[in-house]
Amino acid sequence: MSGVPEGAALAIRSAIWLAGGSSGSGVRCPVTPAQWRAGKRFAWVLGHQMAFVEAGTGRPIVLLHGNPASSYLWRSVLPVLQGLGRCLVPDLIGMGDSGKLGAAGPGRYTFVRHREFLEGLLAVLGVSRDVVLVVHDWGSALGFDWARRHRGRVAAIAYMEALVRPLAGWEEWPAVPKLFVNAEPGSILTGAVRDFCRTWPDQAEVTVPGIHFIQEDSGAEIGRAIATWIRQLPAEPVQP
Prior knowledge:
Rossmann fold; single chain; eight-stranded mixed beta sheet; alpha/beta
């Protein structure tokens, strides 16, 4: 895994901190794409580099973006969460600054390939237990799947504008806390689909204004809601 020059790391930490508040004049100071890119790290996964932003220490909090997008989508959410754990915000393979797969056929960016790269990245980064997943759009499909396959390693899941049907098996592991970040008016998670996911057990709900890329519309509000929810999660049991 390649490191980040200290100057670049300091730039992204400063930019993220400023995004969580304002400058001395009261003017909002958002993270620019250049600042975000400067703070990225890279890990080798299956022969390709995957980019990610890392902030904070402790419980892993993994934020997965949708398609087509990048980790930059979470720039207004991250400042509120970085004090609560080790936030990992990757660019999914083929997106953002992560490597691009060769034109070897129509199967290069299938769900299974994305799954393999996400699995590999989290393994390289040592994400092994007590994981909080924060997922959106295509990232929700990958996140829900990872949680299904690693049930004992997931602490909780927050999701928004997510792919929630077809899905079976929640009743087999109802103890996993969930946060539904509802978008109003929303785009894909509305109507009957919204009603369906509201039947899931052990779930809290918060509503924010937005259509689909709600991190752009209500990033700080989403961050605060997730932070409040994480603070209420039970601590991981002490390992014997």
